Amino acid sequence: MTEEDAHVPNAMVLGTLSVYSAYACALFDFGATHSFISSTLIRKHVFPVIAVEYDLCVTAPLGVDVILDRACENCLVIIIGHELLAHLHVIKMSDYDVILGMNFLSACHAVVDCHAKRVVFKIRVQVEFTFHWSESESPPYLIFPLQAQK
Length: 150
Description:
Layout: H1 3-6, E1 13-19, E2 22-28, E3 35-38, H2 39-45, E4 50-59, E5 65-79, E6 82-91, E7 98-100, H3 102-107, E8 110-113, E9 118-121, E10 129-132
Parallel strand pairs: 2-7, 3-6
Antiparallel strand pairs: 1-2, 1-5, 3-7, 4-5, 5-6, 8-9, 9-10
InterPro entries: Peptidase_aspartic_dom_sf, RTL1-rel
């Protein structure tokens, strides 16, 4: 999944949130069964990582299988001031810092509206909040890394 894929109209919801106290570019992906955090973000901010009991085999968008054996368990994700916990598998990716998949979205009773580019969270009976994405609201300090390859 690349940044270009996220800019396809109505395809995904993209935005900035906090992981612990670090800003992160996040993709809300209802097509992903699990949630992920980039190995670069883990190294940069030294988040706690554990070895998982069972390896997770995921198929990357180009059809390549990747084995994941580490995760950030009970990782603090802050969305519009709401503190949530996520189980994020560590994966090497360059266009996003975090991908929040169905395991996270369903636990938060989230509804993804791709057309309106928003995610509505209904965590408890009385707590409901909506995350909206707008290109004009993207923070100027968010820089997407480029990877050089030989």
